[in-house]
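name: query_chain
kind: protein
chains: 1
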Amino acid sequence: MIERDNKFISISRQAELLGISRSSVYYHSTANDDYVIMNSIDEIYTKTPFYGSRKIKEQLKRVGFTISRKKVQRLMRIMGIEAIYPKKRTSIPHPDHKVYPYLLRNVKIRRVNQVWGSDITYIRIHKGWLYLVAIIDWFSRYVISWALSKSLDVDFCLTALDIALSKEKPDIFNTDQGSQFTSMEFTGLLLQNHIRISMDGRGRAMDNIFTERLWRTVKYEEVYLHDYKNVMEAKKRINSYMDFYNNERLHQALGYATPSEIYYNKTYNVSNVRKKESNFLLMPIAYGSEHQQNKNVNLKIQ
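structure:
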């Protein structure tokens, strides 16, 4: 199926044309490397976040990986992902971690800094992986800050939060119930800044829909198009892409403006906003000259 000696069509392009995972093409030479399977799980999950471990196991089988569901579950835990459909809770929250209620049901988002959201996603690199956290303004889709880490500890989330709060402060901050976001360090910093905390129901990605959309965009427009050789290359390329996303990428839902133009109130034609987005995106409130655009902050690595 795959012609490895083809000088005109790359292996990645051949895999795309055949409808098979790019990761599985290389699997024969790295049969014991979990990261190869994780890369394929990442592609499946990004396309179908409603798939649980059973369906992911079957989809992996279709693209050349025959592994147990138990192993799929173990790798998904390492990656920090789960299906978005509601399900019974299978773990007991840390006794010191308070879970806050979801505050945004039926709330219309009318202005910048009304609601920020944050989430973590898996980023593959050559023979390894990283975790990317981002904080996004729901109204403008502007990515306030982001950070990379080699582990899922809370430190890189605190780094991103510190950077974001040095620029502005939202009325409400929404996350899932991940241990990084329920930690006393993270919630304490929000409370110190008089920010209301909102948390999704477990497995409810639609409660944080704008961050989920961001991840799909980042994966399909940047991560999957490049094979990062190391941490520094990943940092450099993702930093560059986030700059493009904020300042150059046009958003149809924003009337073909950029997130930066909406966030900093530069130019915006309200009539161009798609009506189907009206539940989330309404006419912005004008901001004064005190809202000056900050210089881009380099992506941090813990």
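note: DSSP finds eleven helices and six strands in the chain.
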